[in-house]
Specification:
mainly alpha; Four Helix Bundle (Hemerythrin (Met), subunit A); 86% helix
Length: 257
């Protein structure tokens, strides 16, 4: 039985995954942990004929409650629910692959869950530190922490919207897709340097959903709010640079002949 489940787990890990998604599953610590924890529950839910969409909806509720707990000053339970959200987010993906029910509707629901996380979590963690923790701030006015949290959340969503818009344009407009491809070839050196900055090992472990869940939780459980404050600053700078790269790259594609 264990051997069968292990073989099914390995098949599930490689099934219908893009290259980037596979890299995120094999290089990101939180994803490795979650995939080990979620496959057997996913297998049981698959046998019970539970739909992946049901798990996704529960994950929405968990991250909304998590953000609420941060705001009212209960970070420990907020982290528990944030970790539970990560667990459910991994679980619904495993369940969808096992049941072979991956649909556009399911992908959209999964994307929405990530959008809710990126919009709420950085901002509410910043609000919690601002309201309940005494730490050393870079500037005399600690209100900049609220601004940083808001900019981080906005930057994540803005990047996802612009990236999605460019992807849709590349599907609908063949000329845009060709220009994008030619521009990447012309700027291959810059692209290679950019890929290092955006490598799954770095992005996944520190600046994407699984990395944020793990790092936020560890720092809050340890009570290291000063380090958490510095980490938010690093995320702030990373997201701004990432948006700037996307913005400049989009302009270059539009103006290139």
């Amino acid at each position: 039985m264990i051997k069968f489940l292990f073989n099914q787990y390995k098949i599930s890990q490689k099934k219908n995954l893009s290259r980037d998604r596979y890299s995120m599953n094999t290089l990101v610590i939180m994803n490795i942990i979650l995939k080990i924890l979620t496959f057997f529950p996913a297998y049981c839910l698959f046998k019970l004929k539970i739909r992946p969409d049901s798990i996704t909806i529960i994950s929405y509720i968990s991250i909304l409650l998590s953000s609420t707990l941060f705001i009212i000053g209960n970070p420990m339970h907020g982290c528990y629910l944030m970790l539970f959200f990560g667990f459910l987010d991994s679980l619904d993906g495993d369940l969808a692959r096992l049941s072979e029910t991956k649909t556009m509707h399911g992908k959209n629901m999964d994307i929405l869950g990530a959008d809710i996380f990126y919009f709420l979590t950085p901002m509410t963690v910043s609000i919690y530190i601002f309201l309940y923790q005494k730490i050393d701030f870079f500037f005399a006015n600690k209100f900049e922490l609220i601004i940083i949290g808001f900019i981080i959340s906005f930057s994540f969503i803005f990047y996802r919207i612009v990236g999605l818009r460019n992807y849709v344009l590349s599907l609908e407009n063949k000329r845009f897709k060709i220009k994008k491809k030619h521009t990447k070839i012309k700027l291959s050196m810059i692209k290679r340097m950019s890929n290092i900055y955006d490598h799954p090992l770095i992005r996944g472990n520190f600046f994407s959903e699984p990395g944020l869940i793990l790092n936020f939780s560890i720092l809050i459980f340890l009570g290291e709010y000063q380090i958490l404050y510095y980490y938010l600053y690093i995320i702030f700078l990373y997201t701004l640079i990432r948006i700037l790269r996307l913005f400049i790259g989009t302009i270059i594609v539009y103006i290139s002949k």
